[in-house]
Amino acid sequence: MIYKSPFGQLDPIPDVNAHDAIFNSPWASQIPDYTVYIDAATGKEWKKNQFIQRFVRLATALVADVKDGGLGLKPNSMDIIGIFSKNHMEFNTLCHALMMVTVPASLLSSFSTAGELEHLLKISRTNRLFVEPDLLPVALKAAAAVGIPKDRIHLVHGEASGIPISVESLIKSTQSLPVVKAYPAKKDTLAFLPFSSGTSSGFPKAVSLTHENVIAYGRSAIHVVLEMMKAAPPDPNQPAQIPVGLLALPLYHIYGFTNAVLRPFFLPLTIVIIPKFDLEETLRVVPKYKITALPLIPTILQRILDVAEARKVDFSSVQIMSSGAGYATPESFTKARKLFKNLMTKPINGYGLTETTAIAIGTSDLFPKSHEIAGSGVLIPGVEARIIGPDGKKDVKRGEKGELWLRGPTVVQEYFKDDKANKSTFVNGWLKTGDTFYVDKDEVFHFADRQKDTLKVSGMQVSPAELEQTIRDHPAQLVSEACVCGVPAAHKSNETVPRAWVVLSAEGKRSGKSKQEIASDLQKWVQERQSRYKWLKGGVDIVDEIPSNPTGKILKRVLIEEYVKGQAATAKSKL
Predict the structure, then answer these.
(1) Could you give the CA distance from residue 273 to residue 42 in angstroms, rounded to a whole number?
(2) What are the φ and ψ backbone dihedral angles of 400, each rounded to 5 degrees?
(3) How far, in Å, CA of 133 to CA of 153, rounded?
């Protein structure tokens, strides 16, 4: 059975450069100029028209001949330009300039080590880099390893010894040249290469984001906002204002990228940029700039909810709060409603992947039942879905669990130059997400588990997500975060058993109980509610924090490796 979005389908995407679809559409010229970017660290502001002029100038420089002060890039060639930088306004300038002249940009994690960056450069076939000065040592080492010469390394902003070319210098050196127009593009023309671990475990993969995906994302975003306004109409007695969003998420990640690089030009939006997430800076910036839209990930949301200083901050300006790139608990959303008292809608929970450009499933006040269980929602405009059974071929009945398959104009068609991953992930236009869902009678989608995380205990499947939810459901609300992984069983080296890592909530810390007592309480709670093979036979570990990467994805591998090392050390000490 194919499920369709209750919001309907999108109109066919034309064969045009996404730049023209965004900036040369009939409605674009009707929107007055507005502030599009603010650098929170310096207070520097760019108006939309000022930003457009800047990236058009940069686009001109990118394709201008070297003798004229340009880089001489050639569209439809082998050029792939990497951007290796923390959040900065010039990151956005580069993205739009490169898209305009149809030269793909690889969006490289600014947290990469030299070894990690080397892998990203190889799989994306990046052959030129724009780098933030602070990251040059890592970039130079990785570039040398893959054969990128130093004269192909440039600066996103600022200055650095031995690196003469920057975004700023390129714009200045080509000021006298006539500006270029957007180069022709087709729907399948490659625009960006963000990275994903894929829908199964493994090394990062470069995701082929096309001009069609970019245009479809924008149309879908417009559709969703218009529907939200139906659920929460603006006050006609209040003057219309441009919403103000905070960018604390990394620009290289699809969530930060779509929110800050693309969204402000499909729908007027001011983005306040901080280089990377910092709790103290976030709490300072929200009231200062009267942030109205707060896109978060669950780990950042939880940190805001847990810190006492947050309760002293004026969050009255915040009207929309969304959480994506991970699982947000019902408890955290309940607390968020109390902290952000002026929300126009209930907190928005989204499910999406890099491979779907943005969210594919999200909560909506137009469909109240989509808010009832965290991790649920309805399909966004243009997206279709199937729920496939364990045979990998047949659709399951409504209400039964299976793997979520997705397709639509926001869904990518391939990983870049990776035939093996493509064969295992894409089937006749459908993306196999690797995640288990079920659909209820109202066609609300409910997340059940990540298939790659599912454990086998004594031949039985165990869902970590189910156990994590059981732990969080303890009536005393002892924990704010929970993570369940499989660890080697003490008596069988070839079998895994569930082990939980938990972070105590404020209630847990005030309970007066020792860590051992709380761990015992949680063990008993799970045993009372779950079958024996699901019991936490690997134990419960109370930790200060659960390790995650900068985009909020929990690093389960790190937890397991640390546990195994600890067990080995304990065994050795007993010899």
Answers:
(1) 10
(2) -90, 150
(3) 11
Read off the amino acid at residue 464: P
Contact, 377 vs 320, CB < 8 A?
A: no
Rounded distance between C-alpha atoms, residue 412 and residue 37, angstroms: 28
Query: Residue 151 contacts by C-beta under 8 Å, 6 or more apart in sequence?
Result: none
Q: What are 188-218's pLDDT values in tens digits?
A: 999 999 998 765 555 789 999 999 999 999 9
Q: Left if phi > 0, otherwise alpha if psi is -120 to 50, otherwise beta: which for 24?
A: alpha
Q: Rg of the Cα trace of the chain?
A: 24
pLDDT in tens, 322-368: 887 666 777 788 888 899 998 887 778 888 889 999 889 987 666 66
Residue type, position 421, single letter: A
CB hemisphere CA count around 373 (13 angstroms): 14
Give the count of alpha carbons within 13 A of 429, CB side only: 8
Query: Is pTM, for the whole model, over 0.85?
Result: no
Question: What single-letter amino acid sits at 560?
Answer: I
Q: List, in sequence order, every residue forming a beta bridge with 349; answer none if it has no partner.
A: 323
Q: Report whether 313 contacts 433 (CB < 8 A).
A: no
* Angstrom distance (rounded) from CA 206 to CA 422: 11
Supply the DSSP symbol for 259.
I
Residue 439 is classified by DSSP as: E
Which H/E stretch holds residue 227?
helix 211-231
Q: Closest Cα partner for 386 from 407, 369, 367, 362?
A: 407
- The encoded tokens of residue 509 equal 């810390």
Assign residue 191 a region (left: φ > 0; alpha: ψ between -120 and 50; beta: otherwise): alpha
Report yes or no: 499 and 299 within 8 Å, Cβ to Cβ. no
Alpha-carbon span 91 to 143, nearest angstrom: 19
pLDDT exceeds cutoff 60 at 384? yes
Residue with tokens 């050795």: 572
Comparing CA positions, the residue from 51, 19, 22 lying closest to residue 34 is 51
Beta carbons of 286 and 310 less than 8 angstroms apart: no
Q: What is the DSSP secondary-structure string of 477-514?
A: --EEEEEEEEEE-SS-TT-EEEEEEEEE-HHHHHT---
Which three-class secondary structure state does DSSP give residue 428?
coil
Q: What is the mean pLDDT of residues 37-60?
A: 97
| Secondary structure class of 568 (helix, strand, coil) | helix
Task: Please report how many Cα atoms fall inside a 13 Å half-sphere around the Cα of residue 190, on the Cβ side.
Answer: 22
CA atoms in the 13 A half-sphere facing the CB of 259: 29
Half-sphere exposure (Cβ direction) of 223: Cα atoms closer than 13 Å: 18
- Torsion-angle region of 149 (φ positive above 0: left; ψ -120 to 50: alpha; else: beta): beta
The sign of the torsion formed by the CA atoms of 457, 463, 465, 471 equals negative
- Cα 321 to its chain centre, rounded Å, is 15
Quick one: CA torsion of 367, 370, 372, 373, rounded to 10 degrees? 180
The domains located in the chain, with CATH, are 47-206 (3.40.50.980), 456-573 (3.30.300.30)
207/319 Cα distance (integer angstroms): 33
Beta bridge partners of 107: 83
What does the DSSP assignment read for 520-562? HHHHHHHHHHS-GGGS-TT-EEE-S---B-TTS-B-HHHHHHH
Q: Which helix (H) or strand (E) element contains residue 63?
A: helix 48-63
